[in-house]
Design a protein that fits this description.
mainly alpha; two-stranded antiparallel ribbon; 2 strands; 1% strand; elongated
Length: 723
C-alpha cells in the first residue's frame, strides 16, 4: 500500500494520524535492540488496545477453531487478490506488486521478532519459554547470519527494487509510500514484546494467529507475478525451516496450548491476543485490497503522486501559468484534491494523451538541460507514463480512492521520553535485590540506570592499570585474527592442568561450597548475551554466533540440555537446593554469600546494553567461553567424580566450548569479524581504542581486586549514577 489514500486521509483527519505518527514512532523505538519501556502507563494503553474488539470476542471458541478460521480466511483473501491480478495489464501488475510488497513490509520484515524478549535470565528454566525460544530461533535461522524470515523479506524488497528505507528495520517507518495503518499490528506487537512479563499470553496468541494465516494474502500478488522474487517458504510464517523440524504453526500452537493450560487468566490472554491480531489484520487487509483495486486505474497513482509532491513543488511554479492561474495555485489545491490539476494537465501542452514518449513533461522538461532534471524518481516517472498512456482524463473525472476503514491508532504516547523520565522509581538497595530485579527484561528507570552505572563501574575496575602484561589478549589485534592466539591459550590451559593434576583435590565440603557459591552465576548461564536475542543483532555477521551461544546455553529449547537445569541437578546431589532463581527467596537464601552476586549482577547488567558495550561483550564472551576449556573443566570433572557427583555439567561445557568448532572458536571469530570491519589506515586510533575496550571486556570476567581498582569502580559507578 503506497502512501495515504483519500479515504485514509479523511480518517487521518478524524483521528489525528499523520506520517510520523505514534504508530511509526512506536515501531521505530521497539526495533531498537536496547529499547527500554519502563513500568508505568504503557501497560494500561496496551491493555486498552488488546480489548479493542471485545464486542466480537467469543471467549468460548477453542484455539484450534480460531486457527482453522484464520487459515480459511487467508485462502479466501488470497483468491480476492489473485482476481485483481487477472484484471491487470502488465503495467498495472507492476503497480500491484510494488504496492502489496510495501504494504506487507512493516509486518513481514519483523516476522516473529515480538518473541525476542520472551526468554530471560529469570525464566531460563521455564519449559514454555524454552519452546518459544525454539520457535524464535527457527524464525532467525539460528547458526547462520542473515537467515531470518525478516531477512528473506528484505531480500525480496531488494530484488524488486523497493528497499530504499528497509535497513535498518527502524528506517522503514520513514517510507512515505507505506500507510500508517501498515504499522498498526507490528508496532503494537513489537511494543508488547518489550513488556514480555505483562503480555506473554497476548503475544503468544497474536503470534499463533499470524502463523495460522501463513503467507499474508496480499503477497499472493507477488507470488503469482514474480514467483522467483522471494524465498516463499521463509515468508510463510506457518512453515518449518529445516529438515525434520515441526512446522512453525505447530510449534506456536503447542506453546499457546501449554500456556493456556497454566490457568484461566493466561488462557483468556492467549485468546484475546489471537482475536485482536485477527481483527486488526482483517481491517488492514480490507484497506489494502481496496487500494490495490483502485490502483488498477492509472489515475489513482497519478493523483497520489500529486498529493505527495504538491507541497514541495508549489514554491517553484508561481511564474508558470496554466489557464487563468499559476501552476502553484493548482498544486496547492492538489494537496487535497488533485483531480482538477490532472484534468488541466491532460489538456495542456505538457501532455500528449496516450503518448508518453512524446509528451514534453517526460521529454524536454526532464532532460539534463530541462528545468525539471532529476526532479522525478524512476518510480515517479513510471506512474506518470502509465497515466499518460492510459485513458485520457476528462474534466469531469475524479481521482479514485478506495473505501478503506483504517482504525484509530492506539495511544502509545507513553513512549515519549518525558513520560519515561517521569516514572523513575527506586533503585536496588543492595546486590541481592539488584540481582532479583535484573532477572527481568524490564523494570523501573532507576533499575535501568543502576545497571548502566554498574557496568561502567565494573569496566573501570577491569581496565584499571591494564597493560600488555595484565590481560591475556595481545596488546594489539592481530590482522591475521585470533586463531593462533586461541590455540596458544588452549595449550596453556592444558599445561596448567598437567601441572596441577598431581595436586590435592578439594575436600567434599569445599567442593560443595564452591558449587553453591557459583549458583547465582551459573543459573543465569549466557545472561551476558541476552541482548543478542534481538533480531537485528541475532542475524548480523557479528552477532549470529553470540545468539547461537545463548541458544546452546539454554539447551536449544530442550529442558534436558538446559544448563541451569543440569546445574540444579548437581546441586540436588549435594543436598543444596536453592529456591527458584526468579524468586526473592533465592537471593535471600542464607547459604549464598554477598560476594557471590557481584559478577552475576555485572552479567545481568551488561546484557541489557548489547550495542552500547558491544566491544566489551565480545571480550567478556571470549573470556567466558575459553575460561575452562582444556584445564579447569577437566580438573572440576576429577573432583566431582572423586566425591561421587555427576560430571555432566562440566563435560558438556568442555565439549561445546571447544576451540575448533565450539563456543570459544565462535567467540574469537565474532571478534575478528567485528575488528576487521573497523578502519585501519584512515583512523587507526579508532581500531586501537576499540581493541582496548575488547581487552577490558575480556579482563572483566576476572578484574583486579586491589584497593585502587575497587576505588576506580566506585568512582565510575557514582559518576554514571548521576548522569
Amino acid at each position: 500500500m503506497t502512501g495515504h489514500t483519500a479515504a485514509e486521509s479523511q480518517v487521518a483527519s478524524d483521528y489525528g494520524v499523520r506520517p510520523g505518527s505514534t504508530l511509526r514512532a512506536a515501531y521505530q523505538r521497539a526495533c531498537d535492540p536496547e529499547c527500554f519501556l519502563p513500568d508505568g502507563q504503557l501497560t494500561d494503553a496496551l491493555n486498552v488496545e488488546f480489548d479493542r474488539f471485545r464486542e466480537t470476542f467469543d471467549q468460548s471458541m477453542r484455539i484450534d477453531g480460531r486457527c482453522r478460521r484464520a487459515a480459511s480466511w487467508s485462502l479466501q483473501q488470497a483468491e480476492r487478490y489473485l482476481a485483481l491480478v487477472d484484471a491487470a495489464d502488465a503495467e498495472a501488475g507492476s503497480a500491484l506488486v510494488r504496492r502489496s510488497t510495501l504494504a506487507c513490509a512493516p509486518l513481514g520484515i519483523v516476522q516473529g521478532n515480538w518473541l525476542q524478549w520472551l526468554s530471560s535470565p529469570g525464566g531460563a528454566e521455564d519449559p514454555i519459554r524454552l519452546r518459544l525460544l525454539a520457535l524464535y530461533a527457527s524464525d532467525l535461522g539460528v547458526g547462520r547470519p542473515r537467515a531470518s524470515r525478516g531477512t528473506a523479506y528484505l531480500s525480496m524488497l531488494r530484488t524488486l527494487g523497493h528497499a530504499e528505507h528497509a535497513a535498518p528495520v527502524a528506517a522503514l517507518a520513514l517510507d512515505e509510500r507505506i500507510a500508517d495503518t501498515g504499522f498498526h499490528l507490528p508496532a503494537v506487537l513489537l511494543t508488547a514484546g518489550r513488556r514480555p512479563d505483562d503480555f506473554v499470553a497476548e503475544i503468544v496468541g497474536a503470534d499463533l494467529c499470524l502463523r495460522a494465516v501463513g503467507l499474508l494474502p496480499a503477497l499472493s500478488v507477488v507470488q503469482k507475478l514474480v514467483t522467483q522474487a522471494a524465498d516463499w517458504n521463509s515468508l510463510n510464517a506457518s512453515t518449518a525451516r529445516g529438515q525434520d523440524t515441526p512446522t512453525a504453526l505447530n510449534q506456536s500452537l503447542a506453546a499457546a496450548e501449554a500456556l493456556a493450560a497454566d490457568g484461566p487468566e493466561l488462557a483468556l490472554g492467549v485468546a484475546r491476543g489471537f482475536h485482536w491480531a485477527f481483527e486488526v489484520l482483517r481491517v488492514w487487509n480490507e484497506a489494502t485490497h481496496a487500494e490495490l483495486a483502485a490502483a488498477l486505474n492509472p489515475a489513482f497513482e497519478m493523483a497520489e503522486l500529486l498529493r505527495f509532491r504538491a507541497r514541495e513543488a508549489m514554491i517553484y511554479h508561481h511564474d508558470f501559468r496554466m489557464g487563468d492561474r499559476s501552476l502553484a495555485h493548482w498544486l496547492a489545491e492538489a494537496r487535497t484534491n488533485p483531480a482538477p490539476l490532472m484534468a488541466k494537465l491532460a489538456t495542456s501542452r505538457l501532455i500528449r494523451p496516450g503518448d508518453s514518449a512524446h509528451s514534453p513533461l517526460l521529454t524536454s522538461l526532464i532532460s539534463e538541460r530541462g528545468p525539471m532534471f532529476r526532479i522525478f524518481s524512476p518510480g515517479d516517472l513510471a506512474v506518470i507514463r502509465r497515466w499518460i498512456d492510459g485513458t485520457p482524463i476528462s474534466s469531469s473525472d475524479t481521482a479514485p480512492a478506495p473505501p478503506g476503514e483504517p482504525l484509530a491508532p492506539p495511544d502509545l504516547s507513553t513512549l515519549d521520553a518525558g513520560a519515561i523520565g517521569a516514572t523513575a522509581g527506586t533503585g536496588p538497595a543492595d546486590l541481592r535485590e539488584a540481582y532479583h530485579l535484573l532477572l527481568r527484561r524490564t523494570g523501573t528507570v532507576a533499575v535501568h540506570r543502576y545497571a548502566h552505572a554498574y557496568v561502567h563501574g565494573w569496566l573501570a575496575r577491569a581496565g584499571h592499570d591494564m597493560d600488555a602484561n595484565t590481560c591475556p589478549l595481545p596488546d594489539r589485534w592481530p590482522a591475521s585474527g585470533l586463531h593462533e592466539w586461541l590455540i596458544d591459550q588452549h595449550d596453556r590451559h592444558a599445561a596448567g592442568f598437567d601441572e596441577s593434576e598431581a595436586g590435592p583435590l578439594p575436600s567434599r565440603d569445599a567442593l560443595v561450597d564452591s558449587t553453591v557459591q557459583l549458583a547465582p552465576l551459573t543459573l543465569i548461564d549466557g545472561s551476558w548475551l541476552q541482548g543478542f536475542t534481538d533480531a537485528e543483532l541475532a542475524t548480523s555477521e557479528v552477532g549470529f554466533s553470540l545468539f547461537d551461544t545463548y541458544w546452546d546455553e539454554l539447551g536449544n529449547g530442550e529442558p534436558r540440555l538446559n544448563h541451569p537445569l543440569i546445574y540444579r541437578q548437581v546441586l540436588a546431589e549435594m543436598a543444596a537446593e536453592p529456591p527458584p532463581t526468579d524468586s526473592v527467596e533465592f537471593t535471600r537464601w542464607p547459604r549464598f554469600r554477598d560476594a557471590s552476586f557481584e559478577l552475576p549482577v555485572y552479567w545481568l547488567s551488561i546484557g541489557r546494553f548489547p550495542r552500547t558495550f558491544l566491544p566489551e561483550v565480545l571480550g567478556l564472551n571470549l573470556a567466558m567461553e575459553l575460561s575452562g576449556v582444556g584445564g579447569s573443566y577437566r580438573r572440576a570433572r576429577i573432583a566431582l567424580k572423586a566425591h561421587g557427583f555427576d560430571t555432566r555439567f562440566v563435560d558438556i561445557h568442555n565439549t561445546i566450548d571447544n576451540i575448533a568448532t565450539g563456543h570459544s572458536a565462535w567467540a574469537a571469530r565474532a571478534i575478528d569479524t567485528f575488528m576487521s570491519a573497523l578502519p585501519d589506515t584512515t583512523d587507526a586510533g579508532l581500531r586501537r581504542a576499540t581493541w582496548d575496550r575488547v581487552r577490558a571486556g575480556y579482563r572483566s570476567l576476572d578484574p583486579p581486586d586491589s584497593r585502587a581498582a575497587r576505588r576506580a569502580q566506585r568512582r565510575a559507578m557514582r559518576r554514571f549514577s548521576r548522569d
